[in-house]
């Protein structure tokens, strides 16, 4: 069984992005075990804080990322880019230099926005960082979830959109299996 970390870039309790991530987790096949890795309590990365001992939250986060086999990133878009909390999480787990715990983990990027272009800017910005962090990223289908407020129901997310999520998950599962042969 593959343990898949879920990183949600929105810290808001009732975030649309978190609802999408929760739906993905429910739709995951039996051989993928998704688990949320929270980022909300990570202090901003400052290399000076590494010495003599890094903050406990950094250490716990790094250990959690190190233990997963792949990562699903869910990001909102703030001002045509990814949120600071998500960028900070990338930085925390890629440091200190030479101890990048993201490296080699197959990744999925899903951006969520109430706007029509579905967080394109955040999606592309995140992909750029993941390339540098040595994370192979699923290329197709791209996952820009636009107009999210129209896709929500009292019970969750509309069925047609859930079907699209299932397709993305199936493609990721194939991608993951191919890389981990």
UniProtKB/TrEMBL annotation:
Keywords assigned: Oxidoreductase
Domain NADPH-dependent FMN reductase-like residues, every copy: 4-146
InterPro entries cross-referenced by the UniProt entry: Flavoprotein-like_sf, FMN_Rdtase-like_dom, NAD(P)H-dep_reductase
Cross-referenced Pfam families: FMN_red
Leading EC class: oxidoreductase
Protein name per UniProt: NADPH-dependent FMN reductase
Enzyme Commission numbers on file: 1.-.-.-
GO molecular function, one term: oxidoreductase activity
């Amino acid at each position: 069984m593959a343990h898949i970390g879920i990183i949600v870039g929105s810290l808001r309790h009732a975030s649309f992005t978190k609802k999408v991530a929760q739906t993905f987790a429910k739709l995951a096949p039996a051989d993928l075990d998704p688990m949320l890795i929270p980022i909300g309590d990570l202090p901003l990365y400052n290399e000076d804080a590494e010495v003599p001992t890094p903050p406990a939250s950094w250490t716990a986060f790094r250990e959690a990322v190190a233990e997963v086999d792949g990562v699903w990133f869910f990001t909102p878009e703030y001002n045509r880019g990814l949120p600071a909390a998500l960028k900070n999480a990338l930085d925390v787990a890629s440091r200190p230099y030479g101890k990048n715990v993201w490296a080699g983990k197959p990744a999925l990027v899903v951006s969520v926005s109430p706007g029509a272009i579905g967080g394109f800017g955040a999606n592309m910005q995140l992909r750029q960082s993941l390339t540098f962090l040595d994370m192979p990223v699923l290329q197709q289908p791209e996952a820009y979830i636009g107009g999210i407020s129209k896709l929500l129901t009292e019970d969750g997310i509309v069925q047609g959109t859930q079907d699209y999520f299932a397709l993305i998950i199936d493609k990721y599962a194939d991608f993951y299996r191919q890389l981990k042969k």
